[in-house]
Amino acid sequence: MSHLASDALEAGRIYRSTGAIVAEKLRSDIYRAWERSHCQGANSRALQVEKLSTLETERLLDSHSYLINVVQPYGRILSQAAGTERHAVMLSNQEAILLNIIGDKETIHGPEPFPAHGTLLSEAVAGANGIGTPLAEKDYVQIVSTEHFIEGFHPFACQGIPLRNDIQEIVGVISISVRSADAHKRLKEILICASHGIEAELLITKLEKDVRRILASNPDDYQPLEELRQDIIQSHNAARLKLEVVSRMVVVNRLDYAMQLLQQAENSIQIFRRRADTWRNLASFETGVNQPVSLTECIQDLIDLLSTEITIRKVEVVTFWQEPITVMSDKKSLLRKLFSFFFTSF
Question: Model's pTM, two decimal places?
């Protein structure tokens, strides 16, 4: 047992005998989670978690079908990366209610009880855990073995990260639980990259809505913006394929190669986010207030966004400035004008 786990085990013994939470025995985020769990009335000796009724669960899954479908491919990637280790990849909504679970048969359908669809995993009900605690902390959290507030979760090492939509609202949590500490460590970066990939998928849906709005309101602008949208989606699809390969490489212990690919996938997702942000400014009909805007950055963002179009048209774009240029302008209007100039010149 690791030093952290033994300290947490001792903290649990003290808590169950005296009701006191010993801060020096727990990592800071785990201490906060135990405090919240205690204050909200979670039972550290609970043998089973609470669930919604069958009807309530069916309604919940139906209302969250879109999120479940978006996350499903990434859940399979994470499950594949876990290999033969006993594991469970879980998705919850923003209220810590379990929506989907993927894992090995022994964990999901074995004799030992494991949370199912409709299970309530908030800290108030399930204590510190890989779903409720990331929601409460609004960040990535890992909870190893005895750091779980409830004894029934001690066999697992769990980690989870919130999922945010295009306006940065938390819409759920993706989490993975394993019984092996080694597997737990190697899955962290894949989980984080997968969460970024899921958020990119959510952004793609928003881009599709924007395109429909453009088609209805400004059909003349539709075709060039739709082509650019397809370009940035293709770049994101390439990132997801890299993540798929990473999950296979990790299983066969080609860790160096897997980590190189993982970094490439993460970089591709970040590029997608920047391009999508530029595209959404182009697709916006809004106007804002004049303020200092970096003209050089706007031009560079457009060149990056138009890179596929530039290659197809066999055009060479050369930029030259000795220092950054800042102008007073509404950024959205400025980008739309620059975009028009680029296409006219093409």
Answer: 0.85
Residues in the chain: 346
The CA-based angle 216-220-226, given to 5 degrees, is 75
* Domain stops at, among 253, 282, 311: 282
Query: Within this chain, do residues 277 and 302 fall inside the same structural domain, yes or no?
Result: no
Give the range of the structural domain holding residue 229, as residue numbers without chain letter.
198-282
112-139 pLDDT tens trace: 777 889 999 999 999 999 999 999 999 9
In a domain, 75, yes or no: no
Whether residue 245 is contained in a domain is answered as: yes
φ, ψ for residue 220, nearest 5 deg: -65, -25
Number of domains in the chain: 2
Q: Which of 282, 306, 323 is the last residue of a domain?
A: 282
pLDDT of 38 higher than 70? yes
Tell whether 221 is covered by a domain.
yes
